[in-house]
């Protein structure tokens, strides 16, 4: 399970890097093959590239294993309780799309007769 979490983190950071660096690569090729002197587009491409260095640490912090798992649990619980209130059933049966660690179970009895 931990390997999958690291793979998701790696995939997100790769997609983020690709999206942020693609405008600069496109502008570089356009400048190499055509006489295009659009400074505003060049600045926009550089701004996209700088967003990557700002957002990468936040993606790493948010999608760490422990933080990501607690986030998934909270989302599944809220979705399960919302579905239960709409359908009138128990939330334990509605969490079929959540990972096994975040499914709700009935609370243990208190032991008071």
UniProtKB/TrEMBL annotation:
GO cellular component, one term: plasma membrane
Record region (Disordered): 82-113
Compartmental location: Cell membrane
Topology in membrane: Multi-pass membrane protein
Matches recorded under Gene3D superfamilies: Rhodopsin 7-helix transmembrane proteins
GO annotation (BP), single: positive regulation of cytosolic calcium ion concentration
InterPro entries linked: Prostanoid_rcpt (IPR008365)
Any one GO MF annotation of this record: prostaglandin D receptor activity
Bilayer-spanning residue ranges: 7-29, 49-72
Protein name: Prostaglandin D2 receptor-like
């Amino acid at each position: 399970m931990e390997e999958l979490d690291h793979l998701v983190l790696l995939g997100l950071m790769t997609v983020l890097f690709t999206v942020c660096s693609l405008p600069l690569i496109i502008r570089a090729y356009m400048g190499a093959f055509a006489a295009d002197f659009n400074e505003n587009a060049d600045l926009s491409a550089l701004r996209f590239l700088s967003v990557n260095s700002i957002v990468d640490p936040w993606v790493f912090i948010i999608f760490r294993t422990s933080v990501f798992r607690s986030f998934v649990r909270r989302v599944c619980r809220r979705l399960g309780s919302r579905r239960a209130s709409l359908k009138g059933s128990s939330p334990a049966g509605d969490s079929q799309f959540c990972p096994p660690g975040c499914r709700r179970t009935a609370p243990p009895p208190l032991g008071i007769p």
